[in-house]
Design brief:
This protein is α/β, with parallel strands linked by helices and 256 residues long. 45% of the residues lie in helices and 16% in strands. Strand 5 (143-148), helix 5 (161-181) and strand 6 form a beta-alpha-beta unit.
Length: 256
Amino acid sequence: MTLTTVQPLTGRRALVTGSTSGIGRAIAIALAREGANVVVSGRGKDAGGAVVETIRAAGGAAHFVRADLAESGRAATELAQAATDALGGPVDLLVNNAALLIPAQSLREVDERLADLALAVNVKAPALLTAAVVPAMIEAGAGVIVNTGSLSGLAGNAVSAFYGATKAALHSLTTSWAAELAPKGIRVNAVAPGPTMTQENAAYHETLRSLAAITPDRRPGTAAEVAAAVVFLAGDDAAHIHGVILPIDGGHQAVR
Ligand SMILES: NC(=O)c1ccc[n+]([C@@H]2O[C@H](COP(=O)([O-])OP(=O)(O)OC[C@H]3O[C@@H](n4cnc5c(N)ncnc54)[C@H](OP(=O)(O)O)[C@@H]3O)[C@@H](O)[C@H]2O)c1
């Protein structure tokens, strides 16, 4: 037996949407730490560039590709092509993480503009981006897709119905894609974080703490904890895992 340090994602070409901040940034950094060559994407060029610099400074490989996924159809196709160019080959690990996090809203506060935007970024864009990268995965006979869902898509919630509906749609896409693509060697799974603390939502950490107080673990999660689950689902240790919506919520799902 040899005990050596290996980077299990070495050679993998990853695209992480919404990785200019928060959970996506943690995912991009964690995948790069495990050896993946990573495209960081979002609208924010400076923020994305800073994530790329962090990864490169630590010895990893990363590139920034700007995309506004509200323009879902064209943006998805262009992002897939630009990521392929930046990575020197087709994406074999896609993390659909970007989302419009609609602030607390009652039924009447979701107008048509907000509804269209949330559907475009949270549902249409992941669907069209996945459709754009999957043909190369099918040709290669391998690939991994991990979607960032949400506890809000699993459980009812009085203040985020429409956002929750978009996440429930992403969970549904996850299980259906898993069924369609598993026979072609492609694994599709999702993570479903509960309240999760990031640098960007620091102003809401107290709110997140009070939301998480009812969970068995009695605390919010961290972006790094979500990223660790994505790394697991991306790697070969998860080779027999398809169509899972993995809650990362301190046990909330277990007791609701
Ligand atoms: N934090 C939580 O408590 C929590 C809980 C459950 C699930 N989640 C899920 O976790 C994921 C990340 O959330 P987060 O807390 O890290 O939020 P965040 O910090 O606001 O990150 C959202 C990311 O999405 C990108 N994005 C938003 N609109 C976009 C657009 N039109 N085009 C391209 N990119 C866009 C943003 O990049 P730019 O601004 O640069 O475009 C950013 O990188 C989301 O899917 C969210 O639903 C979060």
